[in-house]
Amino acid sequence: MTAINQDFSLKGWLGKSAIEDIGPNIEGVEVWGPKTVQAFRKQLLAWYDQEKRDLPWRKEKDPYAIWVSEIMLQQTQVNTVIPYYHKFMRQFPHVQALSQASDDDLLKVWQGLGYYSRVKNMRQAAQQVMEEYGGKFPKTQAELKKLKGIGPYTSGAIASIAFNEAVPAIDGNAMRVFSRLFAINADISKARNQRIFKAVIAYVLDPKRPGDFNQALMDLGSSYELPKQPSDPESPIRNFNLSYLTNTSQNYPVKQSKIKTKTISLNALLVRNERGQFLIQKRPSKGLLANLWTVPLFEQTTQDKPSYENLVEETQEIYHFHPIVMKTPIGHVKHVFSHRIWEIDLYFAELSWTKTELAEVEKTDWLYLHDLDQHAFPTVQMKIWKALHDYLKNDE
Question: Where is the HhH-GPD domain (predicted)?
Answer without folding.
Answer: 72-223
